[in-house]
Specification:
The structure is a single chain. This protein has 100 residues and is of the alpha+beta class. Helices cover 36% and strands 33% of the residues. Helix 1 packs antiparallel against helix 3. It is globular.
């Protein structure tokens, strides 16, 4: 199994209200992919970090294999969420993929 973890920081120019809406949209969009993408075992998005955090949103997902992760990256439903709900609102992205 392969874990795929991403941390995002939202753009500074977003108001607190806009950030809350964006975070909710990212969570709903990404978690809606469960059951739609081959090899996606689990997907969870955290949007309520503690004050000690320096990231706004975390994606924690698991895939059957590295090939399944590669398929997820280009799957049309994932690309639609990434392009519509994530990329326009984020200023930074850090990713770590690893085998478990």
């Amino acid at each position: 199994m392969v874990k795929h973890v991403i941390l995002w920081q939202l753009k500074d120019e977003l108001s607190n209200s806009e950030k809350a809406d964006v975070k909710a949209g990212i969570k709903a969009g990404l978690e809606s992919l469960q059951g739609k993408i081959p090899g996606l075992v689990e997907i969870r998005v955290e949007i309520n970090p503690l004050a000690s955090s320096n990231a706004d949103v975390m994606l924690d997902s698991a895939f059957e294999s590295e090939e399944a992760l590669k398929g997820y990256a280009v799957h049309p439903e994932h690309v639609a969420v990434a392009d519509g709900r994530v990329r326009p609102y984020t200023k930074s992205r850090v990713c770590m993929d690893y085998e478990v």
